[in-house]
Amino acid sequence: MIVNESVLVLGISLLALFFAGFLATKINQSLTAIFIIVGMILQNFFPVTIITEFIATLGIIFMLFMFGLEFSVGSLVSNQKKIFYTGIYDFILNFPLGLLIGWLLGYDLIQSLLLAGIVYVTSSVIVAKSIIDLKRSANPETEYILNILIFEDMFIATFLAFIVGIVNYGKIDAISIFFVMLKTSAFFMFFIILARTSKKYIDKIIDIDHTELFVILILSVIVLSAGAAAKIGLSEAIGAFLAGLLLSETKQRHRITEVIKPFQQFSTAIFFVAFGMSIDYKHFGNLIPMAIFIFILSSFSKVFGGYLIGKKYALSKKAGLRLGFSLIPRGEFSIILAGAIAMNHNLPYPLQCLTGFYVLLSAIFGSIIMKESDWFTKWFIERREKEIKPIDDSSTMDPHKSL
Amino acid sequence: MSEIKESDLPSIGKKFTLELDSNDKLVIVIHFSGEREVFKFTKDSDEPISVTRLTDEEARQIGAILAGAYFQPVIEEEQKLIMKNVTMEWIKVTPDSLLANKKIEELDIRKMTGVFITTIIRGETVLPNPPPHEFIKPQDTIIIIGNNEQIKNFISTFDIKQPVENDRQ
């Protein structure tokens, strides 16, 4: 009986998602934000069912698998220098900010770390899509943006494994940190070495013409890796991510994407809905000003960081600012981090609700800002060129001004 | 010839940048989805002045046009053949052609004329290196390769009236 009702609830949720998503695409909004809002509305009508919860878990697994799959180790290796330097800049400027905010809010170390990750990680899904929609893929700043996104995703994936590892271990001290780090890196190394050395064999094994068997084999690889990660006390998401990395170098990559994509789209949508349903906006509406505050602060640090990176790599000011403005949207990874561990909900600022509001703000306004940043950068640069400040003399001397 | 710079756009695709002689830049992005985008940047500008989005199929067609495959300048048959030693010729098989509905081996093309059929283009499908038992059907386009003598020989032996495409090496 419970199952029957759950199925009905799932159907209603999906239909609601369809209509909301349909409207969202009409106004060019990101689906992530809309799905969360649908969840927030639906919580008034029915609770999260076992089925929704189960699909949401699969949603994380499939999402991370797709990340891994679309993440080519080859391009990571060949661009490692660029990725590392741009990424580390962005990291230094943005990660400590969240840590500081967490400390000010009275979070413990683990929650502060999680908040740091939530505030730091840009949504690669929203940003990559916006870049394509806004026809910016050939712009000079785009490569830097994408490199930063790779660094962030890679960092957060490792970070997530580590945090979950620490929490599962039970205590935080030098020995446990060392032990968990060792375990995490061993798990990562195992998959990376496997991907690099046994490419040929993997290629042969998964080269199955029969579509049904192919899907089952790929699913078993994904779920097994996720399960193995969970078994050794890391997060399932990481196992799936590494399974994706493992298969990303194979010839069947596109076919895998094709068959897994529908599962991923379905389950990820439910994941966002379930997350939306868990945001208790009636009792914690007072968190909204706090979320706005964090949003403004972290947006500034992202734009500033992007501007600095642009300067370092001799991009024009305009491109540098566009780089910064493109890093504002937060999304999927922030939500995964917020739900990574079970937390005490009686704190004055429950992390999960705060993240919900924060992600909504930054996903919605972030993509609007990305689109509308042009007039702002124009205005900003023109203004600075008019009032030539003595400090900025060197940087405002644009070549075309002297002509 | 200008240099083409190639770079990765992780999670989007690959980017090719061409510095043109006019100092403008042409950037072609090939998306993982197969879509292509062609951007034009004027000198020193970091925003494109034009963007063209193409599907995979459109891009291929346009590529063929740019490569000169569709354009048939009116050149005398004779002149066409006096190119270099090895020539490729695109031949459309008309329903009344001597080639139509015959197996390659049964026509004995290689022995009789010296040319070799490298490819059969049949509607949407392309058959490279067709086996000897493959049929040549009406409406096929076949690509043959040989030296000038052999091609001429082929054209006269099989009474070809209208090779479709321009020749190339």
TrEMBL record, chain B:
PANTHER family: K(+)_H(+) ANTIPORTER SUBUNIT KHTT. One of its GO terms (molecular function) is monoatomic cation transmembrane transporter activity. Residues 76-160 form the RCK C-terminal domain. One of its GO terms (biological process) is potassium ion transport. Pfam families: KhtT_N, TrkA_C. This is TrkA domain protein. It comes from Candidatus Jettenia ecosi. InterPro entries: AAE_transporter, KhtT, KhtT-like_N, RCK_C, RCK_C_sf.
